[in-house]
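Morning!

This is the sequence you dropped in the shared folder:
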Amino acid sequence: MAKMSVTLAIFLVACTVASGLAAKQIVIDSETKEVQRPAKPELPYNDHLGRSSPQGTVLGFIKSATQGNYELALQYLDTKKTDISAQKLIIALKSVLDRGFQGESAIVSNRPEGDLDDNLPPSTERVGVVKTPSGSFDILLERVQRGKDPPIWLFSAETLNQALKINKALGLTDIDAYLPKFLTNTWFLWFPLRDWFAIPLFLLLSFGLATLVTRLLNLILLLLARRILRVPVDQYVVRLTGPIRILFFALAVWLISFLSRSVLTSLFWSYVASTLTVVGLTWLSMRLIDITFNLKQRQLAVTSSNKIPILQLAAKLSKALAVTIGGFVIFYIAGINITAALTGLGIGGIAIAFASQKTLENLFGGIMILSDQPVRVGDFCRVGDTMGTVEDIGLRSTRLRTLDRTIVSVPNGQLAVMSPENFTLRDKIWFHHTLHLRYETTADHLRYILAEIRRMLYEHPKVESPSARIRLIGFGSSSLDLEIFAYVLETRYEIFLEIQEDLLLRLMDIIEASGSGFALPSQMTHVTKDNGLDAAKSQEAMATVRRWREKGELPFPDFPPETISEIDNKIKYPPPGSALRDKR
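The structure's back. Tokens below.
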């Protein structure tokens, strides 16, 4: 039922498009028979009887003749006949137009200038060809201008002279005489009610035929794909079912148009079939683009996942291009002047560009992000005050999954100028802390602490030795300030936290073992018995510094290179007793 609804919707759109108009003119003078091509476009003109285009003349004549309004129908003929002879001529011409065509698909131009590529003079338009035992006859229209009135299309005098002979040779009769008058005289959208009763039946039969043929074709495609590609392609073949069904539906409409002996029916179904064909091809192109890019995305997911966002953007732009081309082709079928439309689009594009600066800014920002790749899908980054993992890079915005598990959409235009900070691309992580020691710590005591911490940094296997340093950087308001600077050889933040914890605990062990302690930043006055520093440990630390000084081994401003080389990477990490030691 859903498939039937989609097909019916597309069918109704095609029927609507089948009645477009155009806006360009070529004039022929009825007296001199000379073509007058204007140097510049004429002002648009719409004849009140619809005779400003070949299609309007044909439809107007058939409608008025079917309703028995012979006086009005006579206005579409290039003849001087009146009364009974004119009525006979109208009936004969209508009969030929209704049932005289065989093996012809009528396409009558709805442009004021007609079809200029039919190998006929610009003032002449062929409606169709009627085949009789004595030969084939062209049904022609001629564009004439009487006096200063605008040019109009009329059935040519040559065609009218042949109409009675053709009607007699074919022995045609008008079956409308046997139908109720309300079915033939009541018109809706250029068709009498009798034709609209046939449309649902035709729609059901054509849809059923298209469905059967599509299923058979899908089965053949599945067998061929499995044998040739040797990969599961069922889902891709199923996605092609809809557009293929529309194309077969269009083929059935073309067949009806070709077999129809009525110029009105053939004309209508020819335009419907053309529109359905364009819609089906556009839809099929979009599905093929999806399939192609999906297969390529699977390949890149294994070899180069960072190119997937660019591939997704290319898929979206390709589908937009396919829809745009299909839309322009449908406009052309409907008789809209594409050149004028493109010109208007260019002028209107300037206004649209001013009105949608932010949209265009975001579009180009997205293209820049996908090409330069400051962030990629899956990267953890900071954008302004927001930190999160990139989940999608679209044409308008980039979506971040924050640490609170919420989604933040950042416009691409802003993201391109905000210098996003990408944490995933780090090759190592900065270990940077400031230690605040008590002021009771003496200079030699402090030298001992600096040396031991420096030794520990060099010995630790997860710390980059060339970057490691610890320095006395100043005297704080309540402490001696030591700055630690080093890079930890790890890119995953959760692992870095483990290593940082180990380093901080080792720092606490060194300071505790030296007999010093951390300063309290509080400004409160404590009345208490202060145990002060550990005298024994302080004396031992200062004695060690004196020995270094006496032996000329004082490690300031740093350890000698040979000592650094000797002690580098000596600490066992994880430490002994760690639950992870035997697992790494």
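Headline: The longest helix spans residues 263-303.

More detail when I'm at my desk.
O.
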